Amino acid sequence: MSSPSNPVADAVANAESLADLLRTTARSTPDAPAVVGDGRNVTHGELDRRSNALASGLIDAGLAPGDRVAYLARNATEYWELFFAAAKAGLVVVPMNFRLAAPEVEWILDDVTPAALLVEEHLVPLVPASFAGLRLVLGSTYEEFVAAAPADDPHRDSTGDDLFSIMYSSGTTGRPKGVMTTVAGFLWAVGAFGTQFDVSSASVSLVPTPYYHIAAGGWSLIALAAGGRIVQFTEVTPAGLITSIVGHRATHVIMVPTVMQLFISSPEASAADYSSVEWVVYGGSPISESVMVGAQTVFGAKLAQSYGLTETIGVTTILGADDHVVGAGSTLRSAGRAVPGVDVAVVDPVTGEPVPAGTTGEVVTRGPAVTPGYWKRGEAGAYFPGGWFRTGDAGYLDEDGYLFLADRIKDMISSGGENVYPAEVENAIMAHPDVLEVAVIGVPSERWGETPLAVVVPRAGAAVDGAAIIAHCRERLAHYKCPTSVEVVADLPRNPSGKLLKRQLREPYWAGRERAIS
Hints:
Blueprint: H1 7-13, H2 18-28, E1 33-37, E2 42-43, H3 44-60, E3 68-72, H4 77-89, E4 92-95, H5 102-112, E5 116-119, E6 134-137, H6 141-148, E7 163-170, E8 176-182, H7 183-194, E9 204-206, H8 214-225, E10 229-232, H9 238-247, E11 252-255, H10 257-265, H11 267-270, E12 279-283, H12 289-299, E13 302-307, E14 317-319, E15 337-338, E16 343-347, E17 361-366, E18 383-384, E19 388-397, E20 403-408, E21 413-415, E22 418-420, H13 422-429, E23 435-445, E24 449-458, H14 466-474, E25 485-488, H15 502-510
Parallel strand pairs: 1-10, 3-4, 3-5, 5-6, 9-10, 9-11, 11-12, 12-13, 24-25
Antiparallel strand pairs: 1-2, 7-8, 13-14, 14-15, 16-17, 17-19, 18-19, 19-20, 21-22, 23-24
Helix pairs in contact: 1-7, 2-3, 3-4, 3-6, 7-8, 10-12
């Protein structure tokens, strides 16, 4: 007996390019909603036609295969028009964080040199005057550009190992790194991840996080490939989340545990009708037993946790619905087991040699979705021999293959679902004239999981003011990266060789907790 058909698996099996995913749904269900919620609603057929026009217009404007097209805006339907236009025109999409400060935007644009930029009107001041590419402002020049172009599919698809996306992730050196993703990697990830959660043409997926996050962009692509719809958010509020889940009869909801806490603790949120919800998929940090039990009670749905990185297109491990139980031998504190087709191991971070089950080391992974490297930087030391990508996370595998995360090999801070790299924040603070040295660490936060704390050593004779340091950072960095508190000390702890001991700085704040990772 043959196994039942899966719409996501079928879509990927019949696709040679990412553009084929939309072409298929546009033919089969052209009038089915594709994007609803905030912004302009479109059907699959309309999304196909408008992305045709944008692709044709970009080609007519002289963009060649492999040219980059950047997107600097909040979540909007135009993002998906650009995404599929790029797929049809052989271009490379660069989704940018709209929360960045002007110097950060300038650095990325200089690094990736896009031939075209789609930008939201209120973000235009962030674009440097030196930017020489085609500039399309959403709602004005963008609409004129699309309206003037023929709605003919150019069929200049990128396929296979062609580069399709560059997503910037701040690096430990203080400069962002462009994570490269291929067409084949994206297609594989859509199939491998999408088949786990009963996504179909009837699915309504609510994804409140920005599209520049791989979780939001990746899941939305899965929903569209199945012929379903995504509920789009421009700005997320608790009331808006509740209204959207109920009003759109969402079937799949993507959350972080801090947001789930809101739903189980708020009387208004917990009293709403969530009978349409089939799956709640969360990531960013493991879930506490109390939040898990509360979420199951409130939503009455299956829960699953996903662990992954931008470098793996978000696909590494899954803690499935059957694992979300409390009791002896519970794996609830784990990040789950490897997605079929993905290898996960734990190795000595110095030698790269595997360590025994139960022994903490660096988590490494390999599989079809793993990045081929970083834009202009190649592998940049990201791999061990054998194609094992270094996640930078510390953890261990148990005898049954469940991954337990313990700490970070690198010092990344995860605050409210956003990744903050201390070196980048430290670089900004060191530009303050009163600062001699600084170390930025993550400290516990009931609201955000953890937030950055700046430990500052003043210059001789200077009096460091914490509020001034925070204000200084906010002029140079996105606000979520900036420290929420500043501690002034006489010196920073170092070992005999002079290496900064950040673990020693963190210990007083994390004492008594099971894990030193949010």
